[in-house]
Write a structure and sequence with these properties.
- By secondary structure, this protein is an alpha+beta fold.
- The protein is built from eleven helices and 18 strands.
- It has helices spanning 30-41, 49-52, 111-118, 124-130, 135-149, 176-185, 193-209, 238-247, 268-271, 343-365, 371-386, and strands spanning 3-7, 14-20, 24-27, 57-61, 63-64, 67-69, 73-78, 155-163, 166-167, 215-222, 252-257, 275-278, 283-286, 294-295, 298-299, 304-310, 321-323, 330-332.
- A five-stranded antiparallel beta sheet has the order 9-8-10-16-11. The protein has a four-stranded antiparallel beta sheet with strand order 1-2-7-4, with helices on one face. Strands 3-6-5 form a three-stranded antiparallel beta sheet, with no helix packed on it.
- Helix 1 (30-41) crosses helix 5, helix 5 packs across helix 10 and helix 8 (238-247) runs antiparallel to helix 10.
- The longest helix is centred in the last third of the chain and has 23 residues, at 343-365.
- It is globular.
Length: 388
């Protein structure tokens, strides 16, 4: 039922997101969407752009008096930095002379492949849309999607598992609400104070040397019913859809569910989640969650856990070797304003992407045109599962 598109350039006047298929009757807190946008801007190691922007959505359509109407929802997010780029990013051909052409592609970015693919003379025509600034719109979409899941008791949280060479532990008995509070208080969105200290030190070292850092984020979703997604076609498998969405994020190089790649190094008897039955709750249970909450492309009813590996950012203050696209001479990659480390923000972005895919699968399963209709379908299904 759900689909969305984003539009806009990094230094253009604004970003836009259009969400189609949102049912009617859902209460939407615009302040909560703006809080997620603010979360995306935080984190130790962010660059100067975050000091300029104050991301907030302006609702253009689809929400009236705080509720969805069933029509497409449109969000606009202003780029405050546009005032410094108005002539250089102008749609008016008379302003062409104001632009400084970028001809030195950055290794690791979309720069070179983009200009070759689209036959362009200025790398800025590629880097503006390829920029991770686009994820601002996706966070707004994901924040909206989380509110579509809230009435059904589904919670989604992203946090940092590692940055650089430092792994961050998570207390085994911590609840998702406690984890959310703890990681939100951390400058690098971890639940491990010792790891936070080491990560900050490594970020500071990279600042001095003009380098960048990547890391791994984990997204957990609790409260999911069994059976979202399907085994019957390749493109209906929920873990495949989530993996596709996460891999579409800038700088992502790997996605794993549960034990992920580690599952290839243990025997089946150590890996697979044994099944039990809780008679009091009338539900099947699992004695572990090594699968990360999915089997056969469907949710198992256990928490969904997915980890995402982000490479270091491509813009280095000590740029790598490159070649000028115009002269073909040896050069170094162009320097654009950037972050040393954006992994704390990446956790919020991954959270948003997963939330959207879960909401999409939820409405496919319990589809209806209104909150009341979907709630009836959801409650009926839960009863069916309990009475199985």
């Amino acid at each position: 039922m759900l689909r969305f598109l984003t539009a806009g350039e990094s230094h253009g006047p604004e970003l836009a997101a259009v969400i189609e298929g949102a049912p009617a009757g859902f209460e939407i807190d615009i302040g909560a969407i703006n809080r997620d946008l603010a979360r995306r801007q935080k984190g130790y190691g962010r660059g100067g752009r975050m000091a300029i922007e104050r991301d907030e959505v302006r609702v253009v359509s689809g929400i009236r008096f705080g509720r969805t109407m069933g029509s497409p929802v449109t969000f606009i997010i202003e780029n405050r930095d546009y005032k410094n780029w108005e002539k250089r990013m102008s749609a008016d051909p008379n302003d062409r002379g104001e632009a400084k052409i970028v001809t030195r592609p950055r290794p690791g970015h979309a720069d070179l492949a983009g200009v070759l693919k689209y036959n362009l003379e200025d790398i800025r025509d590629v880097l503006e849309r390829a920029s991770a600034r686009e994820t601002t719109a996706r966070v707004a979409v994901g924040a909206f999607a989380k509110q579509l899941l809230t009435p059904f008791g589904v919670t989604v949280l992203g946090y940092v598992a590692s940055i650089g060479t430092t792994d961050a532990g998570v207390p085994s008995s911590i609840t998702i609400d406690q984890l959310a509070h703890t990681t939100e208080e951390s400058q690098v969105r971890v639940a491990d104070p010792a790891a936070e200290h080491a990560i900050i030190a490594e970020i500071d070292e990279c600042k001095k040397t003009g380098d960048t850092l990547g890391g791994i984020v984990e997204v957990v979703a609790a409260g999911l019913p069994v059976g979202l997604g399907s085994h019957v076609q390749w493109d209906r498998k929920l873990d495949g859809r989530i993996g596709h969405a996460l891999m579409s994020l800038q700088a992502v190089k790997g996605v794993e569910f549960g034990m992920g790649f580690g599952a290839s190094r243990v025997r089946g008897s150590e890996l697979h989640d044994e099944i039990g039955y809780d008679a009091a709750a009338s539900r099947f249970t699992r004695h572990s969650n090594n699968s990360g909450g999915t089997e056969g492309g469907m949710t198992t009813g256990e928490p969904l856990r997915v980890r995402v590996a982000f490479k270091p950012l491509s813009t280095l203050m000590r740029p790598l070797r490159s070649a000028d696209i115009r002269t073909k001479a040896e050069a170094v990659g162009a320097i654009e304003r950037s972050d040393v480390c954006a992994i704390p923000a990446a956790a919020v972005i991954a959270e948003a992407v997963v939330a959207y895919e879960l909401a999409s699968a939820f409405f496919e399963k319990f589809g209806g045109d209104s909150l009341a209709e979907i709630t009836r379908n959801w409650l009926g299904y839960l009863e069916q599962v309990r009475n199985y």
